[in-house]
Design goal:
The protein has 244 residues and is an alpha/beta fold. It is built from 7 helices and 6 strands; from the N terminus they run H-E-H-E-H-E-H-E-H-E-E-H-H. The chain has one domain: Rossmann fold.
Length: 244
């Protein structure tokens, strides 16, 4: 399941909660957290749902610490240029603006005062999350809403399926990662593994890091790196909630 989900003292995942549990959680902390992502290629070693799996588990950790409820993962990505990759599916940003705007209004009607929209798929914020918040507020919405990418928090680096995202999954849900998939012989040596490299080009076909953007995860990814980033993110989000 995941490092936070596996040790829940009480349920915080909205889809698994009864109405009385939801009402009790909202009385304690009227906050709802939405994980956004995409289904797309994240290397041979990572699950295609990495973006949303990551964000969802981090938000479960937040709710476990400070209260609130976690909305089910929203596996709709827009932008990013991955549509030609296997197992990668993107949708219209306009459709997502409408959906997220309606969700925000629904949360307010239900009594929530705070909403956090955390996207593991980085283009989602500029593609539709910010626009949805603007539309919600323009229509009179009064909840305090934060849209965020983890890499926008000081001290947290971002990449695509390389050192940092792989590290996140090695900490958050290690059963989904198979580092042995990266042991296949490389077609060629493309430079030092501690440099940021874009492995997305066709010239990298056959390389074990094909489809990655960032630092080679083979010598550099670890659960310790993922834990540090996730805990820093949760600290940041908890401080934002308490600042209201």
């Amino acid at each position: 399941m995941g490092v936070y989900s596996d040790r829940l003292a009480r349920e915080v995942r909205l889809e698994r909660m009864r109405p009385d549990q939801i009402d009790a959680a909202r009385r304690e902390r009227a906050a709802i957290y939405l994980p956004f992502g995409a289904l797309e290629w994240h290397g041979y070693h990572n699950p295609v749902g990495l973006d949303c799996l990551k964000a969802h588990e981090q938000l479960v950790g937040l709710a476990q610490r400070v209260g609130g409820v976690v909305y089910p993962p929203v596996y709709f990505g827009a932008g990013g240029g991955h549509t030609h990759w296997p197992h990668s599916y993107m949708v219209s940003a306009d459709a997502m603006v409408a959906i997220v705007t309606q969700l925000l209004h629904g949360f307010e009607r239900d009594g929530y005062t705070h909403a956090i929209l955390l996207s593991g798929h980085y283009p989602n914020r500029s593609q539709y999350l910010d626009a949805a918040i603007a539309a919600y507020q323009g229509a009179g919405g009064t909840m305090r809403v934060l849209a965020l990418l983890e890499s926008q928090v000081e001290g947290i680096a971002g990449d695509h399926a390389a050192q940092y995202e792989t590290s996140a999954m090695l900490y958050l849900d290690p059963s989904t990662v198979d580092m042995a998939q990266l042991e296949r012989p490389p077609r060629d040596d493309f430079g030092p593994p501690d440099q940021v490299i874009n492995y997305m080009g066709d010239e990298y076909a056959g390389h074990p890091c094909y489809g990655l953007l960032g630092i080679d995860p083979r010598p550099h990814a670890s659960a310790a790196v993922g834990r540090a980033a996730s805990e820093r993110l949760i600290d940041y989000l908890a401080a934002w909630l308490d600042a209201a």
